[in-house]
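SEQUENCE-TO-STRUCTURE ENTRY
===========================

Subject: a protein chain together with a token-level encoding of how that chain folds.

Sequence line: the amino acid chain in single-letter code, read from start to end.

Question of interest: how does this chain fold, as expressed in backbone structure tokens?
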Amino acid sequence: MPFRAPLDDYALLLNHVVGYDQVSQTDKFAEAGIETVTAVLSEAGRLCEEVIAPLQRNGDLDPAVLENGKVRTPKGFSQGYQAIADGGWVATSADPAFGGMGLPMTVTTAVNDMLSSACLSLQLNPLMTQGQIEALEHHASDAIKALYLPKLVSGEWAGTMNLTEPQAGSDVGALSAKAEPNGDGTYKITGQKIFISWGDNDFTKNVCHLVLARLPDGVPGTKGISLFLVPRNIPDEQGEPGVANHLKVVSLEHKMGLHGSPTCVMSFEGATGWLVGQEHDGMRAMFTMMNNARLGVAVQGIGVAEGAYQHALAYALERKQGKTPDGSIIGHADVRRMLATMKAQTFAARAIGLSLAVAIDMGNATGDAEWAARAAFLTPIAKAFGTDTGIEVANMGVQVHGGMGFIEETGAAQFARDVRVTAIYEGTNGIQAMDLVGRKLMDGGDAAYRLLDEIEDVSEQARASLPDLAEPVWQATETLREATESLVAMQNMNDRFAGAVPYLRGFALILGGYFHLKAALAAPDGAAERLARFYIQRLLPDHAGQLAHARAGAKGLMAVTPQDLAV
């Protein structure tokens, strides 16, 4: 079955589940009413179905390669990217002053979701550019904005993010890249960066790198890092790509998946760069890009889950084996269980991602600190659960295919290989969980408790019409409240970290139950209620074990010595 954009799911979620009406009622987004958004998503869905999805397998079979120092991308990627750029899909939320649509992040999130389902390798390119646009809008000088933003927004130029170095990994403060003033307002950037997604391509006129580096007077650690914009080709007086800068792609990584997306080792050899933001304040500027990128990566996982689910469903409907009513394997209870799990979990993860996008939009539109706090709190949950869902659903898709899932020609394995990295990049999911129980609970749990109060209020209201669904969600939320109180009371941060991942998982499961309950309330006696019933009765109960683990502290865990593990 070819990819089909899940427009019905978006309609249900935006109209009844994640509160998009609040966004469209603000002055900032008054023109982005649900009818407009529906039309936009329908057009984006058509692009994904007809143009981008056919590139999925080719990106895997004809991978990006480095030839004579230049990246050659898979056949069809240039045309696919051009279709994305021509439609304005690179920068749907960018400032209209620079050519963007100015649409809510919620819309961009849904578009990115569909693009990820269609072809994750190609979608990663505009996602990087979106993040760079965000960083430049907030931190760059007016001169940089005027020159670079129109080119990035139009898709004529592409953007990247250069953080990681061979010796630094997730410890960004250990970077060694250097920046030296040239005396003319520019800087000489020297160093090597690894894992640079789309560090080069053969279809945009320029590639603009955001690079973290340390000035001569930069102190050790993250507080001494600055951010620089380093283009592949230095713009001339007309603002067009001019002479080549002193940087190059050293090699492409040999990866488990995402073969269509070139992941580059970059060498900056005295390259000319321009400061973005203030000296020694690069991490703050880069985090502007990274926070929205974490939402972007969350929906990469969700999008792949959707693609893997649709692929498995088509196979299950066609594959004849065993004694079932129509002879197809979807009649087997275990196959039905896997497919229902895939769909229900994808719906839950998508609802969490869109809820985060709504919080971001409301914070931007109103300046309300509570919305900003909610967005910050939901970010690690959405990123980790969205990408975990992508991995779990893609693996289950292989299982639905049985032996054929292990055969590359079916395409089922590609989803599993491509999505695996999403739990690693933009902050590993373990780091996301540590952030949740660390920084995100520094308010004493206020943001968490406001969310729990909301879930319990809706559950109370739902008892009249759906008591058998409302009660388990309410009870699970009370268990989560107790676990949150327990973590807030832990003074030893390692006690929190020991249970961070299960706490995040438990929280996400309960959010998923909440959103399924809202969907069932909006569409009773139909598919939404049946899917909610499956999720709440069969998947939600896992929260109890996760939260018991979260409350256990570090003592028993750290008592397992390295020597014990080596036996």
Remarks:
- Residues 282-318 form the longest helix (37 residues).
- The two ends are 49 Å apart (CA to CA).
- The chain has a mean pLDDT of 96.
- The domain at 428-556 is CATH 1.20.120 (Four Helix Bundle (Hemerythrin (Met), subunit A)).
